[in-house]
Protein 1
Amino acid sequence: MHRGNIVRDLRALIRPIIESRETPAGRVFDWVIQSMILVSVVSYTIETMPERSEAFYAVLRSIEISLVAIFTCEYFVRLWVEKRPWKFIFSFYGLVDLISILPFYLTMGGDLRALRAIRMLKILRYSRAMNRFRLAFIEIRAELAVFGLASLLVIYLAAVGIYIFENPAQPEIFRSVFDGIWWAVATLTTVGYGDVYPITTGGKTFTFLVLAVGLGVVAVPSALLASSLSRVRDKD
Amino acid sequence: MHRGNIVRDLRALIRPIIESRETPAGRVFDWVIQSMILVSVVSYTIETMPERSEAFYAVLRSIEISLVAIFTCEYFVRLWVEKRPWKFIFSFYGLVDLISILPFYLTMGGDLRALRAIRMLKILRYSRAMNRFRLAFIEIRAELAVFGLASLLVIYLAAVGIYIFENPAQPEIFRSVFDGIWWAVATLTTVGYGDVYPITTGGKTFTFLVLAVGLGVVAVPSALLASSLSRVRDKD
Amino acid sequence: MHRGNIVRDLRALIRPIIESRETPAGRVFDWVIQSMILVSVVSYTIETMPERSEAFYAVLRSIEISLVAIFTCEYFVRLWVEKRPWKFIFSFYGLVDLISILPFYLTMGGDLRALRAIRMLKILRYSRAMNRFRLAFIEIRAELAVFGLASLLVIYLAAVGIYIFENPAQPEIFRSVFDGIWWAVATLTTVGYGDVYPITTGGKTFTFLVLAVGLGVVAVPSALLASSLSRVRDKD
Amino acid sequence: MHRGNIVRDLRALIRPIIESRETPAGRVFDWVIQSMILVSVVSYTIETMPERSEAFYAVLRSIEISLVAIFTCEYFVRLWVEKRPWKFIFSFYGLVDLISILPFYLTMGGDLRALRAIRMLKILRYSRAMNRFRLAFIEIRAELAVFGLASLLVIYLAAVGIYIFENPAQPEIFRSVFDGIWWAVATLTTVGYGDVYPITTGGKTFTFLVLAVGLGVVAVPSALLASSLSRVRDKD
């Protein structure tokens, strides 16, 4: 019972450090974890570069092992101080924390390198932007569904139309309606890579009509999100 | 007369299922038809892929025959329960329903495959977005006409200008003012595929001036539609 | 004196037909001239196509001669009914009307074909959009000057930067700061043709920074014009 | 003491010319310096062109020497009339003025040509736009930080995703996550040069999802700047 008290006291001591950003110690802890996430992200990004030397790879490997150790400690400490550990395990951030370390143990650091990018999501915990996006999203959920569906409809009809016009002229480029969808996405978002584009007069005229009608439709969901985000700022 | 009563009772029973979304049976009917439309759309999209096997084609063919049978039943049931059948036949949705099945019977499922994409429009009946677009469009009809014409004017003048500058330097690319129009559409919507672009100093300077003036003009109609759509949300 | 009276009466009779859109005769006259302008524009556009036959060219040639005859009559009738003929000659629309016909007489329909595109501007006389653009432009004149200059500054600094980064790596593409300006215009308007783009890490990082800062700046003038145009609608 | 008086009087005479735009002499001085800056910018731009003759280079060289002389005089006069010279030297405009002339003396006009582009920044002193950008920036500083970070997060996650999808199919194009970042910047700003784009079905589907979510996020910072700039106009 005496020992239990010590543990209980320790937990009461550590909890505010980990869960709150109000105390100096809490801010230091947050900064440390955020720096680790950044190191992890930069290290992963560099590791994907093809022309790295063997020595450099060894350095990256040690960084990775240290980071996994730190993130594992962080995970168990969070689990320990949490009042309802099971709720934490299945919460969004609990799962992100778990997936950040699990692939390393499963493969002994082998082939699941890419999953390390998920660690980036750990930073969301510290991001005030996240809450705004959540509020903005809830506010315009119904709108987004309606206009998102309208955008999908416009994209699909544009895809079928361009396929009908261009498939006979460019059977290797517009092989199926799927290629049409790719063209419609690149065109209506105005990205326009230039890998697929109409060459027939019919296809070009159709593109003109699609842009005249479609730009206004496809632009609505992202305009809604942008304006909702700036409205949310007053409530934040 | 007794038999006529049964028919009348049956019609009174079926009508709310088909025409209303308030009753559970009506909602089920709507979900079934919507699923069929989706199956039809996906099936058509897959059918356009070039590398399908003969067996796979047979499956798609059976799906198509079943769907045409279902949509034909749906069409006649709608016609039968409708109080003014002729009005339904020549209404927008009546025509869409008819064109969704007619090509199959005319060609015994032959060469008019592409017309099956029109079935996508059947989904509009269930889309709340449709009504908003209609209201938004009515609200800004006069505006759209004025600024749509202004956009056409800017596009045409840009097309003539770039043709004059670039035709001597790239006679194979800017063959006529029509190529200029295609360039103007791709440029002023900022899609910029990169299949046609100016190479002379005069043409590049002209492009700069056209973008400086034209972006503001061509952006107006789609900005009007987007802002009108978000205004309409309050009235919906 | 008696004859002078007839002329005066005739002028009084014709003037409202030509200058007003309120009377039925005035509306008919306007529609005729607008149709002629459209025929002229379409005829010019078709004439630029390279693969026209000799017979087709003869038809276009007759149309052109007829149109010049009609526009010449229109010009002299306008001059005649006008109370202050000299003011009309040097007014914007008077000059447009003159340039629409003059090249034909100077070269007997020869090499100044391209100037026929100017006839398109005759349609502005009938366009309600024109007045709105004029009002919108006056309203934001000072703003446009300030932010237009800011955009030019951003474009120039981006051009110098990309030239410094990319010239050593791509001396044939980024030959001088002028090529950098062309790149900056295509990039900051998000057209992105893909004829010039950075390939060095420095140039790509610089592009990222330029886009982060520049998109907000370059978008301002056209956003100002678009929002001013929709404000003006209430006053029109 | 008498001589000191003359100097003091001269300074009192020259100061309003240099520091104020209210007096006619002040306006003339400003116009002269602005013209010199413009000449310098145009001269630098032309100098980067590869096909210049030796004679032409000599002319540009003389212009450069004259301009450095004038800007040096301007710098020392500003230093002399300034009440707190040290504050001027380390102010933004003081440093810009110094960097505009220093490279010439350090290298006797040699290899630091590119630094001459910095002279463009001298024009900011005369730009009313500058103040607005400063005010707009202060107003939305916190917003910009939050949404700028969110944009960076979206760009990085998009980069990792496209690298995972496209690296096996295009190892020469998507060599590392850095190429993915370049692709994400070009795509989410809708520039779309077309030098890098996905070719696998997975990569294209991922692009569609990234655009659906990301356009709304990445557009926010520049939309914030644009709307803040038009708000600031009322306070200016």
Note: Chain A has nine helices and no strands.
Protein 2
Amino acid sequence: MEAQTLHTNFNLLIEIFGTVSFAMSGAFAAMQKRFDPFGVLIIAFVTSVGGGTLRDLLLDVPVFWMRDLVICTMIFIGAVLAIVVKSFERNFKVTLFIFDSLGLGLFTIIGIQKGLNADLHPIICLTLGTITGCFGGITRDLFLNRIPLIFRKEIYATACIVGGSLFLLLTYYSSFSYMLVQISTIVLIVVIRTLAVKYQWEMPKFYESRDQGEF
Amino acid sequence: MEAQTLHTNFNLLIEIFGTVSFAMSGAFAAMQKRFDPFGVLIIAFVTSVGGGTLRDLLLDVPVFWMRDLVICTMIFIGAVLAIVVKSFERNFKVTLFIFDSLGLGLFTIIGIQKGLNADLHPIICLTLGTITGCFGGITRDLFLNRIPLIFRKEIYATACIVGGSLFLLLTYYSSFSYMLVQISTIVLIVVIRTLAVKYQWEMPKFYESRDQGEF
Amino acid sequence: MEAQTLHTNFNLLIEIFGTVSFAMSGAFAAMQKRFDPFGVLIIAFVTSVGGGTLRDLLLDVPVFWMRDLVICTMIFIGAVLAIVVKSFERNFKVTLFIFDSLGLGLFTIIGIQKGLNADLHPIICLTLGTITGCFGGITRDLFLNRIPLIFRKEIYATACIVGGSLFLLLTYYSSFSYMLVQISTIVLIVVIRTLAVKYQWEMPKFYESRDQGEF
């Protein structure tokens, strides 16, 4: 198999795995709120396509999930998988966290890549990657009427931005293979988020004065 | 009048009636929150065009309410009508419910039709119909800082999806006239939602453990 | 310098000043919630580009902040400025209010102008101006999980609509220079909002029955 095909296939794999991860993260969050199956499916859908949809609208390219049934099928599988996993595993917090972090890492990369393909400035690409990674989760949390994760654990966005910066640096200045660059970025984002959660456990007072002094 | 014209006119009628219904639903909700007339108008606008705007952005077609003043005028009439109705009728709950259900049914159909016109897969069309039907109400509820109706009474989305599926089935496999297909779908959606409200009256405990176990 | 160049330069000045104002308004709001620097930057970004992004998507023109780094740089400067100002000045309420009002006035004008350039009906342009002015702040407040300012102090939208109407009236029916029309509009919007805040101080009971009678 030649490099180009491998590259394309690896990108497709990332997109599919990110879609399933975010769909599961959305489905878990919706099941926590005791939604019926259709509600679970809708939240899975919104979490999964939210970021990429906004990215494609901003880039004025065809919206990725409308071209065929691949993404919708993946989301359906992700939602069903989440319902199945739920019957084995009751610790939603950890499961949701893992899939959310994976989705974040995977989607950030896709967003940056699409920006680079459109010949945008690296900083704009980084913004686009952050939007792609974060917007689905934000929409999920808004729809579930929760304080968006990204703003309760701000390191969420930080992970996204730091990971994305590494991706851009390695792409421009390293001789690493494309796949290695992508895997490094995903690992970095997941590691940062895991450390972030530990960090919050140690500093829960960080948010104590949250609701004081409203405008 | 030939069939084509009748068909176009009936579609226009559905769009106008759906716009006025959702505008009234938005205006009632805003009046409940004691908004001033401009606030009422804005919520009426957002509720009415929210779904269709997202649909048109996704399809990359001109946004429907920007081409002329028809939609804006209908929204204005809807908002004024709501203010007038309010002085006769104080039972917002029922009135809001009726207009919300009607708007849902009407807009779901329009979304599916626009998707079919763009040669999308029926499942994608159904998604588009659900988005068109539900997104205006979700935006209204987010802006009013209420838990979105669709997620308090999930059967809302279910009504949309089941109704849309009937519409697609009848369009593809029945010999019903187009108008009959549309009317059946609207009736089905309103009936499902009415039953859903009754269902919730019987099972209020369904949401009891809502806010437990946040991520 | 000829009139056309002056006009273009003044428009650019308005866009830059509006961007910095909204970025600072977003940054102040995020700092109130004790966000880390990346969180502050993201809220500054969202507040600043939210309205204009939706406007450009609706008009189907390239999204303004993606073409170059000018807007992103301005947002960065605005966020840093806000952090610096914070160390001198602890009265967030007033500072946030001033920058929010300025941004509102400036962005409303830009929205109307872009609508007029696209040959839209004046009423649609006014709608577009209101969207450009208000949507960034709404998104900021949704993301911060606050009741959107626009719906706590509805005069916010009223200021936007009244100011925009003045702008259209003066553009069509007066012989004022373009710059004078723009400055009058901004002053009117800031004055209306300032009076509105006073008005609310006198009528805090206006919202008392807010959460009663939910649908």
Note: Residues 201-215 of chain B have pLDDT under 50 and may be disordered.
